[in-house]
Every structure is written in C-alpha cells, then in structure tokens.
Amino acid sequence: MVTTRVLLSCIILCFASFNAHAEKLKIAVSANFATSIKALVNEFKKTHPFTEQISVASTGVLYQQIRHGAPFDIFLAADLRRPQLLEEQGLIHEKYRKTYAIGQLALWSATSDEAIKLDDLKTYKGRIAAAGPHIAPYGLAAKETLMSLNLWTKYHQQLIVGNNINQTYQQILSGAVKYGFISYSQLLNSKVGQGVLIDTSLHHTLEQQMVVLKHAENINLAAQFFEFLLSNTAQKIITETGYLPAITIPESQKPESNNDKASPPETAIASS
Prior knowledge:
The chain is 38% helix and 24% strand. The protein is an alpha/beta fold.
C-alpha cells in the first residue's frame, strides 16, 4: 500500500512539474487570421508541446498594445506597415520579420439568396459595413476598393465601422446591414448568404507579416513557431483557410506589381 502511494505521489509530482514548466506561447494575431491560427497552433503542437495564449484584435490595436509593453511573444499582423514600424522602433528580433500570408478581401451578404457582385453597390441605397480603415488593414482595403469603384463618396458617411473585421462579420451576420467587407477566409467559413472574392487590383496587396518581439518571454519557442509558419505544412493550411501563400510576393517586391498573381475577379461564393 505504501509503495502504491509513493508511486502515485511521484506520478502526480511529475505531472505537476511538467505543467509548471510547460512552455507557453503568447500570440497576438490580427482578427482576420483568428480561425487560421487555431489550426496552425494545433498542427505545431504535434511536435512542440506547449500551451498557447492567443490575443485577437485589429492590427492597429495590437500594435499600440505592443508599443506600450504588452507581453506578447509573436505578432501576426494583417499588414507589413506595423511590423516595419516595430522593427524601426527596435522592438523585434533581427531577421524575425517575414511575410506569412497574402490576405484576400470579399464582399458578403448574409441575407442574400442570390449571387452578389460588386456592381450591386452602385445601385444599393442602404448602409454597408467595414472594419475601421485607420486600425484594420482589411478596412483600408475596403475603403480603397470603394475608391477604385468611385463609390467612397457615396458610402463613407454611412459606413458602419467595426473595431476589427470579426466585429464587421457579426454586424453583417446580424442583418444590421445587407452588405459588408470581410476576409475571404471568413467567407469560406460562413454558413449563410452569398459572397464574392474581390480582385486585388482594386486595393493594396494585403501582405501579412509576422515578427518575434524582443521582450518575448519564450523567444526560442516563438522563433520555432515563426519558422514553422513558413514551412510547406503551415503554408498548405494557410492556403486552405483562404489566403495566398507567403511565397506569392517576394519581400522586395512592391505590392502594386502583384496584380498578376490575383485570383480571378469577382468569383462568386455561395455559403452552404
């Protein structure tokens, strides 16, 4: 009996010790990538046991939090501007700023039973939704799309602005507006309505970059996850969840020159 108790105590202590020393990765991720990051974390865990703490918000909000000392290990932005600024401010590890995905924008209606197209916005009389252009790269892409279509003047004063693209998704899903701009990844995951993939020539390239932060508590694990996101395995998951792979656009290439890589314009998507 004593031996059994001792053995049981040892097992409990070993388990507690493992949990106490289990590596934790603190991930800051832009709202558009919230679904993808879960799949990527689960895949990475197969070879790197750890616990994760995922913080989801707009890229602009997360950037400000990092500047004010938020204890993240790795930051997955929805643009390249904020990662560049963090590098200029000396807040990231050298050589740990890379493009991990190219985002795609979509127009979605949760209430439409028929296929929609961008031209519908030219005759539509109601309000539309988009994330805030000043804090969310997908919101800025939505603004640029409307400007390219000469519709920004028509809609900018009646735009329902979300703090991030997830909030915008909920505004459209609730029926508060008929149309709104979301990520293609969100459109693929939607179960209702109709959507259309937007030609990337209508807005700046949504080059999404990641950085390992200099004040990271678990730099080694963050660096390993960083490298994993550039692997073939991770890039396959990223493309399956609605993004173009990171290799689509070289870091030295200007966004405007990537138009020939875009998906076919106005690809209609019916949610199942």
